[in-house]
Design a protein that fits this description.
It is a single chain. By secondary structure, this protein is of the alpha/beta class. The chain has a single domain, classed as Rossmann fold (3-Layer(aba) Sandwich), CATH 3.40.50. The protein is 47% helix and 20% strand. The chain has a five-stranded parallel sheet with strand order 2-1-3-4-5, sandwiched between helices. α4 links the parallel β4 and β5. The termini are far apart.
Length: 129
């Protein structure tokens, strides 16, 4: 039985499947998949995840507004949001936190360490509270 639940928001179907498989099969996560931020917000309302992992690049027209909605949900429900991005190295953890995120994972990612990276960022978030 999975120990933690994660909402994965990724618009590219192939990458969404790979990320989901890495987290569920190699990391024992209960993974809920979403192809858009808007759908992800609805899924959060149905069942609170332990963490949200979102791809920073999305084709949604109102992505910034939707990310702000997701951040408000994250704050009110104490759910950390992690980014997965090829630009993750551009900012420090402190800068990500100032932007309302708990951390970031770089693309390309290592499938075998993805789950441990998410867990480590979650524990850093808990220790920062």
């Amino acid at each position: 039985m999975p120990s933690h639940s994660i909402l994965l928001i990724e618009n590219e179907a192939g990458l969404r499947d790979v990320l989901g498989d890495c987290l569920s099969e190699l990391g024992d996560w209960e993974v809920r998949l979403s192809e858009s931020i808007q759908e992800g917000i609805k899924l959060c309302e149905e069942k609170r995840p332990d963490v949200i992992l979102i791809d920073a690049s999305t084709p949604e027209n109102d992505a910034l507004l939707l990310v702000e909605q997701l951040k408000r949900y994250s704050v009110s429900e104490s759910v950390p949001i992690l980014l997965i991005s090829d630009r993750a190295n551009w900012f420090t953890l402190k800068e990500f936190r100032q932007m309302g995120f708990s951390g970031a994972i770089s693309k390309p990612f290592n499938p075998s360490t993805l789950s441990s990276q998410v867990s480590r960022l979650m524990s850093l978030n808990k220790s920062a509270d």
